[in-house]
Amino acid sequence: MQLAGLHHITCVCSNAQRTLDFYRDRLGFTLVKKTVNFDDPHSYHLYFGDEVGRPGTLITFFEWPRAEPGRLGRGTLESIGLSSPNVEDETEVEDPDGLRLRLYPAEAPGLRDVVVIGNPDLYAGPFSPDAPLHFAEPVEEPALIGAGTTHHIAWRTPDDVEQRAWLERLTEVGLRPTPVQDRKYFRSVYFRMPDGVLIEIATDGPGFLVDEPAETLGQGLSLPPWLEPERATLERELTPVD
Fold first, then answer.
1. Per-chain mean pLDDT for the chain
2. Which stretches of 158-218 are assigned E, i.e. beta strand?
3. What's the pTM value of the predicted model, to 2 decimals?
4. How confident is the model at residue 138 (pLDDT cuts 50, 70, 90)?
5. Are 155 and 2 in contact (CB under 8 A)?
């Protein structure tokens, strides 16, 4: 049992509308879910992916409007590889907050790989040798998570049974995983690597069609049942994006 496929990558942005314009209009991703950070519901969590948000196509953003620019270092990604139908040649760009992207031509949008600032020896065992995981030179200075950096990397697991097996394994080796978290569109376990990288193991299902039909994905503000009583307040506080 090894982690072999990316589920999603979550990053930090400072302006949700500007981020939406860049990933949708320039790179060809679909906004498949407009929701909030379940742990900080007064801020957006935007999910971009293919037309239905299949695992492995997703790059997501917490909006932190008052966040300082982040700093690369130990515990974050040096860059993210994305497939895009809107580019003709391989190229390197930065998004509006300075997140480093490597773009590759493809028929559909999606994740390609990640480059971690860290020590590859730490990842032997839990991660497949064929995982889309590469390494930049390690540095001692820890990252400062903020606008333009990654927050965490999520890897795929097919179902709850395998996720529970991961929970037991991670506990046994002392990585202190969280209990299973209900993220409505998938279930998640989190743990931190010795180099500081925050890892999530997310189930493939139930997916983004549980509360919206495919033809209107991402158009309205989607909330989990436990936040529905706060809908009026959240819709008043959050700056509209379209």
1. 96
2. 181-182, 187-192, 198-203
3. 0.97
4. confident
5. no
Give, in order, the Cα–Cα distances in Å from 229 to each of 171, 211, 234.
Answer: 35, 16, 10
Q: Over range 23-27, report the average pLDDT.
A: 98
Residue whose pair of structure tokens reads 């509006």 in the numeric block: 96
Helix residue ranges, H only, the chain: 16-20, 160-172, 231-237
Fold of 6-237: 2,3-Dihydroxybiphenyl 1,2-Dioxygenase; domain 1 (3.10.180)
In degrees and rounded to multiples of 5, residue 123 shows phi and psi of -100, -5
Q: How far apart are CA 199 and CA 201, in angstroms?
A: 7
What are the extents of the domains in the chain?
6-237
**Which pLDDT tens digit goes with each residue over 146-191?**
999 999 999 999 999 999 999 999 999 999 999 999 999 999 999 9
Give the start-end residues of each E strand in the chain: 6-13, 30-37, 40-49, 58-63, 77-84, 91-94, 100-105, 110-117, 133-136, 150-157, 181-182, 187-192, 198-203
